[in-house]
Description:
By secondary structure, the chain is α/β, with parallel strands linked by helices. The chain has one domain: NAD(P)-binding Rossmann-like Domain (Rossmann fold). Helix content is about 45%, strand content about 15%. The chain contains seven helices and seven strands, in the order βαββαβαβαβαααβ. It has helices spanning about 15-25, 55-70, 95-120, 145-170, 185-190, 200-210, 215-230, and strands spanning about 5-10, 30-35, 45-50, 75-80, 125-135, 175-180, 235-240. The chain has a seven-stranded parallel β-sheet, with helices on both faces. Strand 1 (about 5-10), helix 1 (about 15-25) and strand 2 (about 30-35) form a beta-alpha-beta unit. Helix 1 packs across helix 7 and helix 2 runs parallel beside helix 3. The longest helix has 26 residues, at about 95-120.
Amino acid sequence: MVMGMGAVVLVSGGSKGLGHALTQEVPFPARVISLSRSRPPEGVGHITADLADPDSWVEVGGAIGDLIRQEAPSRAVFIHSAGTLTPIGFAGEVDSGSYLSNVLLNSAAGQMLGHYFLDAVAGRDGLFDMVMITSGAARSVYPGWSAYGAGKAALDHWVRHVGAEQAIRGGVRVSAIAPGVLDTAMQTEIRASDVGQFPEVDRFHRLHEEGNLVDATTAARKIWAVVEGGIDTGSVLDLRDF
């Protein structure tokens, strides 16, 4: 198969937070596209999608497939950065509709979009990476974050399984990377939580007050450096180890 000479980078949630920073810090010339509800900054392409809605996954999957076929890139990266903490609170006590959206976005959306990306690049020549942005909450217990923590843990284990599959196929490098505690709107949301719904809130106030939050741009640059340095497929990594 003849390869194109370009590169394509797809970032879910690329209009804000870490996702936005990842679109701005791509270390090689590429066509960069955000998969998000909100329009990203000028210079970044946009596929409009509410990724908490399963109906959008099929549409986005088709768009990814069309893009890869049209561009025939020699380098392609998909990063799933979209996620939500809302609703913060105990299971059985928060709004059920919001809880469902959390489960769908944090767990299922990444798996399905990853599936579509793998399908789009299967059998093609080139260098392909897929990164799931995970969290320490996948391994630690934070009462009030049951859907978020479980969703990230599901993505981690999906990466382990799919990494083993891709090692057999010799295809896509698959990894999950936890960026640490970032200075983003999500942290503002955490600090606004009621202690009754999120008992660990004081810990996050201290991290903010002591200047221990990581700038999203700094984290994005480190993530790209890790990806470009080469990752063993199936790896679940913590950026604080680099």
